[in-house]
Amino acid sequence: MIYLGVDPGASGALVAITEGGQWQGSIRNKATPAERWEWISALTSCHCRAALENVHSFPGQGVSSTFKFGASFGRCEMLLVCAQIPYELVSPSVWQRGLNVPPRRGKTKTEHKRGLREMAQRLWPSAKVTSAEADAALMAEWLRRKQCQ
């Protein structure tokens, strides 16, 4: 079984981990649609499940950035649908709570994101986890733990 975490943000990624929790690979959302399709198609020979971050726009967010954010989410969702990978939508608060991530209270977004990257790096010391991959990797781990209970 391969578990995928999908952070649909423009600076996000897709990360795959094995049933045993080993880092399988990743691809950034900045890759072309064809590159992402090729990457995910290589995984479909295995049984896969995915966690897709359930995101939304925020008050004060610009029209252009909201459109780009929604388009990126749609591309990620369609990638999973076309690859016939079952997925569930999960909010950041749910997967973070499931991994005992301390709440963001009192921290800047940058500090919180740094903490997530450091947590992911501790889980996969042999991988060089980037900030773009951290959320997706942790979502994949959240799904793996949930499915293995």
Question: How would you describe this protein?
Answer:
By secondary structure, this protein is α/β, with parallel strands linked by helices. It has one domain (2-147): Nucleotidyltransferase, domain 5 (2-Layer Sandwich). Helices cover 47% and strands 18% of the residues. The protein is built from five helices and five strands, in the order E-E-E-H-E-H-E-H-H-H. The chain has helices at 33-43, 63-82, 92-98, 109-123, 131-147, and strands at residues 2-6, 13-18, 23-28, 48-53, 87-90. A hairpin with a 4-residue loop joins strand 2 (13-18) and strand 3 (23-28). Helix 4 packs across helix 5. The protein is globular, with a radius of gyration of 15 Å. The mean pLDDT is 91.
Q: Provide the CATH top-level class.
A: Alpha Beta
**Termini Cα gap:** 14 Å
SSE class: alpha/beta
Name given to the CATH homologous superfamily: Ribonuclease H-like superfamily/Ribonuclease H
Write the layout of secondary structure elements.
Layout (H helix, E strand, L loop, with lengths): L1 E5 L6 E6 L4 E6 L4 H11 L4 E6 L9 H20 L4 E4 L1 H7 L10 H15 L7 H17 L2
Parallel strand pairs: 1-4, 4-5
Antiparallel strand pairs: 1-2, 2-3
Helix pairs in contact: 4-5
Concise account of the structure shown:
The chain is built from 5 helices and 5 strands. By secondary structure, the protein is of the alpha/beta class.
Annotation keywords:
Nucleotidyltransferase, domain 5; globular; 149 residues; five-stranded mixed β-sheet; 47% helix; 5 helices; single chain; alpha/beta
